[in-house]
Amino acid sequence: xxxxxxxxxxxxxxxxxxxxxxxxxxxxxxGQDDGSVSNFTQKYSGVALDGYLARxxxxxxxxxxxxxxxxxxxxxxxxxxxxxxxxxxxxxxxxATATEQQRQYxxxxxxxxxxxxxxxxxxxxxxxxxxFLGQMSRRVDATDQNNVTNSVVSPLTSLLTNVETxxxxxxxxxxxxxxxxxxxxDYLNTxxxxxxxxxxxSSLLNASLKVHKVVTVLSDRLTDTYDKIGDExxxxxxxxxxxxQNLAQELVTSGNTLDVTLGDAxxxxxxxxxxxxxxxSIYKDSDLTLPxxxxxxxxRSAIERVINITNNIPSVVNTLIDPAGIAxxxxxxxxxxxxxxxxxxxxVNEKASAEDNSIDNAIAFFDNQLGANQALIDALVTSxxxxxxxxxxLAATDFDFNSVEEITSAATLPDEAEAFTQTGGKQxxxxxxxxxxxxxxxxxxxxxxxxxxxxxxxxxxxxxxxxFIEGANSDTGxxxxxxxxxxxxxxxxxxLGATTDDVESYSMLITLTFLGTTYQAIMxxxxxxxxxxxxxxxxxFDFDGDLVTWHSAEGMVETExxxxxxxxxxxxxxxxxxx
Length: 579
What we know:
Low-confidence stretches: 1-22, 24-38, 192-197
Mean pLDDT: 85
Number of helices: 17
Oligomer: single chain
Strand content: 15-25%
Number of strands: 25
């Protein structure tokens, strides 16, 4: 699965001509206009919830087409998932005194709107530290200032975005077993929900996770086949918005509860078929070649696997998060949500041509009806609640665990993985050790980042040198179109989840503005690896929607000097392939 569709293939080729794909193709990128706002009349503020979504793109979808059109105002969410105003820090990102870094979180329109959809996609889940998959949305009556400010955008609000009648709205709320007021509750706020009770609301979190993870898995199956979605103009980034709409319709039409609907294979087939029909219409309208209909009567077996897996998601969520509404601690919610995410990652990474038995193992592991696995599940949740949890490695296991020690090891970063701390004033060079093949497919990609700020800062600006050589010819010495021996760029960095009291983090967010376009990336330490008898720091980051690993020979070291020109960057990053 492509975790996010940032920009078209053509646009991507143009961008790669000037900057390494490490930063340019990161999942958070928007690939359109620069988002600047002037003389605005309307400010929108709120929070994005799956977990809290950091660096997600939030925009005013004026025509409700699930596409961020060039004229539509947009911004990023901050480290806590807020846009325009953060009530935790009391920061107004739209204030006249806001810094350049703060202004990127201001969602304001210089056009007066009445009824619009606030839509959110891309970014990173603060709880899991993983790229956020899909879209969420909320219908907003912009004539009412109470709706424009402090909005909660969540999987639950996404289900109601296209519900048109009050009767259907009430039916859907009944199916979800929630009230209209629940849509405005920040159910992850441990300082208390709308009723004044402390702790995380397990009932709302339970329902939200069921909805979005089911939608995520079904969307992945569709976009694996309809792979032009998000890469061609006039198409949504993925199938999520369609699935939300059709799942809502199925819930209203059937009159069944959420758990019954999600556990009913026929209901899920209805949702998938309706969404596929929508995609085929989009393909026809965009004059795209239609693939074989995966939901056709002659090809029904093509969707049996994803339906069988999806049917099990509600029971897995119920095992991990009590649906009864009992308040959870942040630690409990974190470990449980990360455990669920491992199953989702496994599922979206499964190849259609070869079933992954470890997915079935994971489902069986969480099937705890008789309590046989409770001790192992508790150990997994506890391990994953720690800052050094390692979801990526856990998702790669076969989930055939027999002991608490085995689980703890699989779910935790290696001891030598060092958290990002005292980042200001340091530099980090990371390299792709794959140099391609001579003579005409030579690669040489490296990035060196210079982090500005004091040693105990948790965010700041950075300068970076980028070398990007791909597919060059070592015989002729031709660098090749789109390659660079060294490019100087600037951006911002911040430590995800860090506070002034706890400045350590195992996830660093990077914001880069290049040629008027802003992009996001995330980096994570992954311990030490020995390659060709040389020991390296392994660094994971998201590259074109996938988490990959590059390496650093020295790790974080004190910055001695910062290059000021492209020529200086080329001297800092000498060729490793003789070009």
